[in-house]
């Protein structure tokens, strides 16, 4: 069975955030969301809109599809 897409996205967001040496607090502030909400995204607990995926990708400096590609 494949991993749920929201978990894939969460892991990608976490990996990219850490690679860019961003804190959850810093990225959450840039996105205009709470740290708790961003933590939920990273844990794969949140269903995001496509607009939210676009905003995350822009802040992390990647194309949106890079956040949902299974490795």
From TrEMBL:
Keywords of the record: DNA-binding, Transcription, Transcription regulation
Keyword match Repeat: no
GO annotations of cellular component type: cytosol
CDD domains assigned to the protein according to its UniProt record, in alphabetical order: HTH_XRE
InterPro entries, sorted: Cro/C1-type_HTH (IPR001387), Lambda_DNA-bd_dom_sf (IPR010982), TransReg_Diox_bact_type (IPR050807)
Signal peptide boundaries: none
GO molecular function: DNA binding; DNA-binding transcription factor activity
Keyword rRNA-binding: no
Pfam families registered for this protein in UniProt: HTH_3
Residues of the HTH cro/C1-type domain: 13-67
Designated name of the protein: XRE family transcriptional regulator
Annotated source species: Gulosibacter macacae
